[in-house]
């Protein structure tokens, strides 16, 4: 064998040659002081169902911060950092009273804005108690959810209203849910929030993952390879897809994401046609976990999808499937958590069908930079009279 033959037989593309992988920290990480963490903290985020704010303290993790949610005896919801400002135990073990939450360790009592009202071990109930403040966050209840603002106080925007949750059809009311990421899986997914958010614009995975690969997870028409175009909207990115129905008519489906984490996805089970029925907030729990809070127009309590929807090909709900069945019938949960705790962006090979993801990353980058340079990010409003936000999203049918 001469030298040339030896070179020709050397293997190429093996794992040994791959470079150390990395992720885009400026988009993925959400802690206080990080680029995306600061962008996130310029918006309101749902942190629980309104029914979660009770006299029983509830532990939460939001944007990497450990918090306790409660409702005082006067009915006011409160959100405080979990770590007591006295000697650091968690207020999760506290007791809620008429005026606030009392720490289990030395009994300091804090109101819903973190003011210290009592220090029972101190002379006169604490002469200096006005000098301490338990770190707290403002909250507001709407659409069956508790929203929190965790950013700079001087930049607190108004909590937005949404047309799809304000204008109801006869018989509809607004309900909220936090039990799953939407199509199978637990309430909290063990991967980065951006993996879910990008998936909303990953339109071509629908006929593959939810259609041909795992059988019909949605409906027959959704199994069709659509024609897709993506574009910016005033507050995010939209995907517009076209499919042909059996009777020759055309189904036009628009799906949107809106900053910072809003998923505006019309029902994929296509139970009926029209404007989007629900909104999903992709809440980063921390860098490697997210969960979804949903609010939607429903006709029956707790029923967000047409009856019978949500079954995988083997007709079992996700919670009842064995690990082997989940391997054989993967869905969104498997695909997204399968990318790893934080996907390695350096290893990706984005193609033409990923154009929506590129648009979203560009937009997120530009907004991270806007906040860095002192501007207000896209979509925040300080006007209490701001009209409800209208989305294009929906499933619509037109003649061919
Ligand atoms: S640690 Fe909370 S009152 Fe002492
Ligand atoms: Fe999906």
What does this structure look like?
By secondary structure, the protein is of the alpha+beta class. Strands 12, 13, 14, 15, 16, 17, 18, 19, 20 and 21 form a ten-stranded antiparallel sheet that branches. The chain has a four-stranded antiparallel sheet with strand order 2-3-4-9, with no helix packed on it. The chain has a four-stranded antiparallel sheet with strand order 5-6-7-8, with no helix packed on it. Helices cover 16% and strands 26% of the residues. The protein has nine helices and 21 strands. The protein binds FE2/S2 (inorganic) cluster (FES) and fe (ii) ion (FE2).
Bound molecules: FE2/S2 (inorganic) cluster, fe (ii) ion
Structural class: alpha+beta
Largest sheet: 10 strands, antiparallel
The CATH architecture designation of the largest domain is: Alpha-Beta Complex
* Number of H/I helices: 9
Radius of gyration: 24 Å
> How far apart are the termini?
65 Å
Number of structurally distinct domains: 2
Shape: globular
Q: List segments where confidence is low: pLDDT < 50 over at least 5 consecutive residues.
A: none
What is the C-level CATH assignment of the largest domain?
Answer: Alpha Beta
User: Would you list the SSEs in sequence order as H and E?
Assistant: HHHEEEEEEEEEEEHEEHHEEEEEEEHHHE
Q: Which whole number gives the mean pLDDT?
A: 94
The name CATH uses for the topology of the largest domain is Naphthalene 1,2-dioxygenase Alpha Subunit, Chain A, domain 1
């Amino acid at each position: 064998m001469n030298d040339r033959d030896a070179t020709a037989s050397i293997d190429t593309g093996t794992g040994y040659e791959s470079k150390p992988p990395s992720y885009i920290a400026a988009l993925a990480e959400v802690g206080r002081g990080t680029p995306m963490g600061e962008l996130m903290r310029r918006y309101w985020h749902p942190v629980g169902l309104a029914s979660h704010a009770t006299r029983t303290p509830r532990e939460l993790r939001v944007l990497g911060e450990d918090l306790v949610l409660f409702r005082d005896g006067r009915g006011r919801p409160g959100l405080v950092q979990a770590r007591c400002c006295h000697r650091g135990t968690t207020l999760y073990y506290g007791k809620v009273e008429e005026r606030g939450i009392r720490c289990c360790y030395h009994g300091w009592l804090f109101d819903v804005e973190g003011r210290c009202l009592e220090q029972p071990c101190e002379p006169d109930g604490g002469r200096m108690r006005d000098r301490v403040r338990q770190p707290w966050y403002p909250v507001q209840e709407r659409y069956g959810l508790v929203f929190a603002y965790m950013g700079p106080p001087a930049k607190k925007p108004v909590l937005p209203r949404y047309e799809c949750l304000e204008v109801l059809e006869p018989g509809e009311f607004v309900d909220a849910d936090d039990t799953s990421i939407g199509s199978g899986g637990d309430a909290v997914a063990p991967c980065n929030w951006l993996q879910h958010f990008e998936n909303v614009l990953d339109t071509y995975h629908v006929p593959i993952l939810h259609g041909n690969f795992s059988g019909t997870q949605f409906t027959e028409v959704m199994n069709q390879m659509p024609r897709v175009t993506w574009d910016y909207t005033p507050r995010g990115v939209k995907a517009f897809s076209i499919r042909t129905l059996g009777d020759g008519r055309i189904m036009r489906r628009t799906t949107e994401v809106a900053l910072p984490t809003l998923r505006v996805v019309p029902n994929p089970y296509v139970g009926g046609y029209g404007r989007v029925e629900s909104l999903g907030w992709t809440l980063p729990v921390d860098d490697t976990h997210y969960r979804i809070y949903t609010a939607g127009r429903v006709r029956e309590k707790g029923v967000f999808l047409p009856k019978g929807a949500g079954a995988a090909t083997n007709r079992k709900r996700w919670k009842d499937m064995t690990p082997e069945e989940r391997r054989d019938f993967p869905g969104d949960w498997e695909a997204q958590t399968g990318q790893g705790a934080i996907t390695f962006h350096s290893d990706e090979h984005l193609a033409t069908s990923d154009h929506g993801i590129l648009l979203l990353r560009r937009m997120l980058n530009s907004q991270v930079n806007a906040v860095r340079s002192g501007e207000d990010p896209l979509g925040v409003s300080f006007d209490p009279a701001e009209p409800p936000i209208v989305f294009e999203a929906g499933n619509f049918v037109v003649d061919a």
